[in-house]
Each structure stands twice: as C-alpha cells, then as structure tokens.
C-alpha cells in the first residue's frame, strides 16, 4: 500500500500523462540577433513592404542576413539540394527566418539551424532527403490531379459542393513540400513550372460565370498560391462578386501569409478591405473564414496572433489552421499538441486539419506512413477541446480528404492502403465504377520492413 505521504502531488500526477500542457506566452524572437538585421527597427519589422523587399531568395541574401553564423558545409548542402532536389525556389520572409534557431548561441548556430523544424521544410538541404528513396515511384508533380479537374483554368471542381479557385500562382513564401509545386512559384533546375495562361481578369470572369451556372457549388476556397499575393482591390472585387452569387454560402481564404507574413494582414488598407468584405458576408449570411498553414509552434508569434485577431475583430467568422504533417517538423504528439495549444489558446486560430504530406517528388523524407498518422491521431485525442482537436487527413489521389482511420484495406508489408469514396470528382461523372473502385495510397518505402523494401526494389 502507498503511504499517504508517498501519494503523488497534483504536478507529479500531470507528469504521469503522456503529454503535459503548460501555457506558454507567445514571443516575437529578436531579429537583431541576425547580423544583417542588427539595426532593423520595430517599425520596419511591422511593415509588410519591408518584409517583402527583404525576403531571402538566394544564398547570397542568406549570407548577408546571417553573416558568418552558418558554416560553408551548410551552404554546400543547400546548394546541392537546390541543384538536384528542390521542387520549390527559395523565398523566405524575414518573419519566417526569424522563427528558426531562436535560442541558438552563435557557436552552435549551424547545428541548431540544421535541426530546426521550420528550416527543415522552408529551406531543405540535400542531407535532409531520403538517401535511398527520395521520391516514391508513384509520386507525381500534380499528385492530387487538380489541373485535370479544372473546369476553367485554375478552378478545380473535385468535390460535389465545393471548388478551389486558384487566383494566383505565387506566394509571399515558398514551402519546400508545396503540394502545388507543379504550378506555384518559380521554376527550379529540377522543375519547369506550368504557367497560368489566361489574364487574371479573364480567369476570374470565367470562374464567376461557372459558379453562376453551377448552383450546386456552395463553398469556394479562394486560394493560389496565396491570396496575400493578389492585389487587394482585385481580391476584394472577386470576393464581392462571389458574395453576389446567392448559392455561394461558404468562402474560405487560403493564406499561409497569416503566419509567414502576418504584416500583410495588419496593413490598414487590407484590414479595411477585409472589414468591407466581412460586413457584406455577414449581411448575406455567408460564412467567411481564413484558412492558414502553420506547421510548428515556433511560428506562432505575437504578430501572428495579432493578424488572426484583427481578422476576427473585423468580422471574419473563423481563422483555421491546415498544417501539414511532416517528419522532422511536427510528426510527434508533443509537437502537434504544442502547436495546437499555441494556435487555439494564444492566437485564436482553430486547429482544423493536418494533411499527410502529399506524394510529390522528393518528399519521402517528410512523409509518414498511414499507420504512423493513425497513431498520431490517437495520441492527440482528449487534450484539446473536441471542436479544436484537429483531424489528420490523407488526401488520396482521385478521392479527396479522408480521415486516416477511414481506409478500406491496408497491406502493411507493401505499404499500400486502399480507400473508397462516396461521390464522383468532376472527371468521373460518367464513370459507373467510380464509387466501387478502391484507390491506392502509398506509405514511404523507408518505413517498410525488409520484404516490402525488396518488393519495391524489384519493381523499380
Ligand atoms: S504557401 Fe501554400 S501554396 Fe504557397 S508554397 Fe507554401 S504550401 Fe505552396
């Protein structure tokens, strides 16, 4: 029997849980620790234009900001990746770079930078990649086949009641794992990007025409790229035209910039414009929300919270996060929960989804197996409020998002899961077997046992 004086204290009891919640105050890391920004003022830092002009777009600019903090070995590793593996070009706003290797002493900076979760997806290096299987044999440039489902250029009609409107093919930041690597950003030595061919105004006219003619579509994700790169008057005009269509009931603005360049979303002209749109949406009973993309708690700073709260204050109904689950970045229960508590508790951003990283080229080192995603989903249940407990989803090619426990069959040896669906995508309306078919999804080969790895080696 345990004597009374041996009974655990309340704090010790908490420690016996797999995860311990501790409220953490958000902090804006001091950008002056970077030699290149030693004299940057707070006013400059809060200025969206200063942030855009001072984005890091190449090695020369990275050297200018970091001085001698990073070793030559790191630069060699970075150059090797850019020449051979990168599917996205380099574009990192100061705000994002400032959330990397936050507490590192100058002598340890390279090691801390290499290990940093934000660096690992924003600035990949050669040694990050999977040495044996950098790409899965079934990886594809447009792995979700979005362009195949365009009903007009840039308008993907994949789900019966929802469409995705790609307004622009650029972002204020480029993420190494971008699922739209086929279209978004500048070409890299490896990837020659596709280009949108219509003029923005013509593309938008065609999108609006399609939505007017298709009253079954009630939900429009206005995306890109990142809507923060659409000139505000153009975006506001498109949103107002959407709000004129009575059958459109949900509008979601997709912008990673809320976290990568929050300065954009606190500029007075953008805030005033957002307020006009939110007021109109509210009057017409339309749910207007912002969806952002934050992958690690380090990225949630006071400026990010300010941007989210500003949007809520001017009448946006909700700000939600759709993160991407990636090894080395956030694929542990602690990392996911720390991020969700920072978003939900400190920034009023609802943790909504974590997508499994899609099957694009050279992404195997980030991807997790479906069974790993299932374990993570299990591990994060019960800590957050139910409505703020994110779902981990697998975006299965030709199917769409499925919760990770929804698979129909799973060959663990070969790492192939099979999924079904209950609607036809836009390209299967005449396909009688679309709803009976099983659609495969593939685990990273490096997560398989010996027999599975051998099978894939024999195939390729
Ligand atoms: S912000 Fe989104 S669209 Fe832009 S590069 Fe990142 S993942 Fe791709």
UniProtKB/TrEMBL annotation:
All residue ranges annotated as the Radical SAM core domain in the record: 157-388
Gene: kamA
Taxonomic lineage from the root: Bacteria, Bacillati, Actinomycetota, Actinomycetes, Pseudonocardiales
TM regions (residue ranges): none
Keywords: 4Fe-4S, Iron, Iron-sulfur, Metal-binding, Pyridoxal phosphate, S-adenosyl-L-methionine
Cross-referenced SUPFAM superfamilies: Radical SAM enzymes
Record-given protein name: Lysine 2,3-aminomutase
Signal peptide positions on this chain: none
Stored InterPro entries: Aldolase_TIM (IPR013785), Lys_aminomutase/Glu_NH3_mut (IPR003739), rSAM (IPR007197), rSAM_sf (IPR058240)
Listed cofactors: pyridoxal 5'-phosphate
Keyword flag Protein transport: no
């Amino acid at each position: 029997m345990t004597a009374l004086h041996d009974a655990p204290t309340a704090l010790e009891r908490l420690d016996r849980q797999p995860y311990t919640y501790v409220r953490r105050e958000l902090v804006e890391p001091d950008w002056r620790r970077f030699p290149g920004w030693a004299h940057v003022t707070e006013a400059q830092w809060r200025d969206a234009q200063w942030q855009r002009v001072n984005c890091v777009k190449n090695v020369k600019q990275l050297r200018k900001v970091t001085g001698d903090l990073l070793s030559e070995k790191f630069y060699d590793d970075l150059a090797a990746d850019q020449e051979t593996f990168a599917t996205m070009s380099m574009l990192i706003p100061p705000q994002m770079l400032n959330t990397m290797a936050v507490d590192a002493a100058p002598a340890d900076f390279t090691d801390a930078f290499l290990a940093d979760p934000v660096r690992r997806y924003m600035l990949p290096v050669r040694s990050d990649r999977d040495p044996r299987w950098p790409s899965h044999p079934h990886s594809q440039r447009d792995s979700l086949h979005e362009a195949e489902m365009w009903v007009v250029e840039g308008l993907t009609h994949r789900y019966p009641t929802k469409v995705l409107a790609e307004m622009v093919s650029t972002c204020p930041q480029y993420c190494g794992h971008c699922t739209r690597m086929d279209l978004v950003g500048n070409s890299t030595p490896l990837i020659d990007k596709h280009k949108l061919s219509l003029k923005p105004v013509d593309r938008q006219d065609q999108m609006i025409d399609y939505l007017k003619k298709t009253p079954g579509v009630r939900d429009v994700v206005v995306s890109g790229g990142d809507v923060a790169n659409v000139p505000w008057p153009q975006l506001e005009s498109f949103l107002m035209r959407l709000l004129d269509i009575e059958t459109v009931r949900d509008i979601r603005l997709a912008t990673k910039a809320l976290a990568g360049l929050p300065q954009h979303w606190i500029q007075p002209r953008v805030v005033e414009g957002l307020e006009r749109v939110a007021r109109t949406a509210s009057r017409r009973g339309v749910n207007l929300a912002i969806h952002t993309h934050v992958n690690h708690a380090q990225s949630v700073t006071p400026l990010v919270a300010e941007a989210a709260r500003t949007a809520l204050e001017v009448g946006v109904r909700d700000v939600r996060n759709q993160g991407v689950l990636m090894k080395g970045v956030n694929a542990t229960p602690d990392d996911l929960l720390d991020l969700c508590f920072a978003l939900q508790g400190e920034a009023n951003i609802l943790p909504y989804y974590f997508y499994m990283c899609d099957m694009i080229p050279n992404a195997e080192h980030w991807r997790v197996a479906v069974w790993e995603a299932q374990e993570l989903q299990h591990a994060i249940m019960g800590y957050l409020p139910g409505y703020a407990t994110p779902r981990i989803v697998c975006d299965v090619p030709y199917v769409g998002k499925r919760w990770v426990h929804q698979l129909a069959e799973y060959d663990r040896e070969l790492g192939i899961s099979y999924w079904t669906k209950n609607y036809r995508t836009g390209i299967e309306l005449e396909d009688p077997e679309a709803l009976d078919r099983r659609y495969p999804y593939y685990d990273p080969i490096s997560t398989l046992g010996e027999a599975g790895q051998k099978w894939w080696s024999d195939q390729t």
